[in-house]
């Protein structure tokens, strides 16, 4: 029987993992520059956390969660997103006690049983951040700046920041009625999916992917034009905050997001380089979630972004990180004495942090040289009983062809020096 990875999941193979590492390193360094600290939460949580947090009527909760009953009859779910988990941890560990504004970030796998296609997986990875504890639009602007800064750091081009306000519990109900009244007028012509959404989650009709729906709703009322005074002020402070940070943005009244917890700010970062799965990142404010999950009412804002989509865009834009994981030194053994010495010297150098390789397959000297070449080792030393007697080896620089003789005792210092002065 032959096994294959499960549909919608992907292996990251040794030849491509350096691209993930480069992206993750850049993400961490930007997060740290903005003074966000990492949080890690378990891969699964109680199902009710997501059902309550994300919303029973969303696609994620209704159709996409990996939910199972464990052996003690508890319903558990592989996390489809991080915000609910982060807020659960925030409440459970009283993180708000330590500081008035808790700023956390994460890199984590997520699980959603969606129809797989390019840029849409069933196990995918997100990086994201949450700022918990303040209502001010300036926090939203900082959070958006953080997302943009990651793409800038990695050299990504051609992305658009779209922002909207989805109002609050005061202004949204009246707007919803207005929208539903409008949608009832075109109901018969809407796609089956939008007709279903009209009943369950009418705002989501506005971000239908169906061209026909979009034409029908071109003149639909938008939340951003029906905000209460507080939400309108918040939105205008957000927009001026973004402008003062020099972040170009587009107001798009159709950004409604697929999760129910948003209040006021909603935003997405879209790219033209990925076809239909064009959302690189999404987020917004969720002032009611903490109370909904059993904590003290605490305003918060955050975003998350797909790492696979980031890497796809980087590939498309030819922003490929170079693979610099290669041996500094390959020690080739010319005879048995040389091979034994090579193994123990390699161990010594590795303990000193110098990437080193030697042959463990008993290959001929010629085959060892070929292997050193294939592995792109910077230096090669051939060692046999003769070299060991003289207590010196010849280091060959594989790119220039230069050779230097080095005392065996000085090998570590010499390589360290060469690596430093590179
Ligand atoms: P989301 O829009 O569901 O938001 O996901 C954020 C990003 O994750 C998307 O823009 C996309 O890049 C990536 N993504 C989502 N689903 C998939 C998939 N099936 N395959 C590949 N990539 C995917 C959230 O998850 C919210 N928790 C964001 C947030 C944080 N809001 C406030 N704080």
Structure, described:
- It is built from 15 helices and 16 strands.
- The protein is an alpha+beta fold and about 425 residues long.
- It has an eight-stranded mixed beta sheet, with helices on both faces.
- The longest helix has 17 residues, at about 15-35.
- Histidyl-adenosine monophosphate (HAM) binds near residues 81, 82, 121, 286 and 308.
- Histidyl-adenosine monophosphate (HAM) binds near residues 126 and 304.
Give the secondary structure arrangement, pairings included.
Layout lengths: L16 H17 L3 E2 L5 E3 H8 L4 H6 L2 E3 L5 E4 L4 H10 L9 E10 L11 E10 L4 H17 L5 E7 L6 H15 L5 H9 L10 H6 L12 H16 L5 E2 L13 E7 L7 E7 L3 H4 L7 E7 H10 L12 E5 L2 H16 L4 E3 L6 H10 L4 E5 L1 H6 L1 E6 L5 E5 L3 H10 L2
Parallel strand pairs: 1-5, 7-8, 12-13, 12-14
Antiparallel strand pairs: 2-4, 3-4, 5-6, 6-11, 7-9, 9-10, 10-11, 14-15, 15-16
The site of histidyl-adenosine monophosphate has 28 residues, from strand 6, strand 10, strand 11 and helix 11.
Which descriptor suits the 3D outline?
Answer: elongated
- Structural class designation: alpha+beta
| Main beta-sheet strand count, sense and barrel state | 8 strands, mixed
Low-confidence stretches: none
Unique ligands? histidyl-adenosine monophosphate
Number of helices: 15
Helix content: 25-40%
Overall pLDDT score: 96
Order of the strands making up the biggest sheet: 1-5-6-11-10-9-7-8
Record field, number of beta strands: 16
Question: Whole-number radius of gyration?
Answer: 28 Å
Sheet-strand content, in percent, reads: 15-25%
CA-to-CA gap between the ends? 50 Å
